[in-house]
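In this supplementary section we document a worked example of the pipeline. Step one takes a protein sequence of length 441 as its only input; no multiple sequence alignment statistics are reported here. Step two produces a three-dimensional model, which step three serialises into structure tokens for compact storage. The input and output of this example are shown verbatim.
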Amino acid sequence: MKKGLLCFLILFTSMGLRSQNQITGVLSPPEEFKWLIAYRLIPGSQRYVADTQVNDGSFVLSLPKGAPAGTYRLVYAVPQEEFYVDVFYNGKENIELHFDLQDGSDFVVSEENRTWADYLEAMAEVEKAMAAVPRDIAPGEWQAILQRQQDVQEGFLERSAGLMVRELIMANKPFVPKEPLGLKDYFVQKKKGFLDSVPVGSSLLQTSGLLKNKVLAHVYTDHPEQLEGGMPAEAQMQLLVDQAQEKLTQTPQKYQLDVLFDVWNIAQNNGLHQLTDHVATKYLQKLATDLGDTEMAHFIEAERTLRLGNKAPDMAWQGPDGTQNLWEMEGAANYVLVFWSSGCSHCLKELPLLHEKVGQLPNTKVIAVGLEEDEVPWRSVTEEMPLFAHALSLGKWDSELAKTYDIRQTPTYFVLDAEKRFVHKPQDYGGVLRFFSVDNE
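The serialised model returned by step three reads:
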């Protein structure tokens, strides 16, 4: 009786151990890593799974029993959206990887992840060759490159039989024209068939990043105009966004918001203001509102308001001669707005330095806006900087001016021209001086 019970317990224990898989690895350089947090990605979001300490660069992360197959994100620093490693877990295999901050990931154990990594590397080599072809490439040479791409695809479809990542490889099937095409015609036809045979509703496709990358490539790359060294008109890129969003309606709204925000962000960073406004007004604002994401909605609107070239929102404050307004200020070629706080150590270091240099800023006035909870400490500090115009905005982060100018840290600087239009957004005090070509000594 006791022997039977003992055998049962051993069997039960061994089954339990086998059902709990691990992700292990070595992280380099070891001094840069202290902790790992694992999340399971779901379309447009993520869910906490487990965490573990990193000891001298090594870690062992045990996944919960029955952890579902899918994409898992290993976060090793903040901000989390920048410092992570994504892995595919099929619910059965252990995963071992080496990760280097310079060289990226190398999967030692995991057929799923090694196959996917090898596939991406092989495809990248072909795409590199495609990008390097001359505009007048001979039709036979171009067809040879396309055949090479097709050979890579078919080889990895065979290798990935029975694997989870086969779904991704199938979804990434290269465009194969029905008849030989020249270079320009190839890209024209490829655009027309965007996502036609891709299972857009696949959760794995969404969480892998593959679908998002396809949308971004559709909007920003592989344009026939780029063969001539140019870019398509923004109106054409707006149509491509509309085409992509029509496909994305098959995905959850959170996922749509995530993808379209990246489309918007790239446009914003590249000064494509028509495209930025199109994405924001037609899609992002509504999605953010529907999902109750008020922070996202405010951020998008603030970025539009504070765009370079736009007139700064007006502000009023009580000066020594009564009420003053930003828009009514005259007599300067430039105005510097600096949002600060008397409780901010960086501000108390940078503002006095800027005050010392204010006489060297050519034909410039400085308006220092204090974001404060209490007037008393603010007034004490401002008395030491009489060359600034000082405005007080009580309520600190919740004050009207902090919200209008989307202030997320202090000090924050803006440079305006004589018409009060934004011309520069320095990152720090040194950036202000560099804009005016003033020596920071």
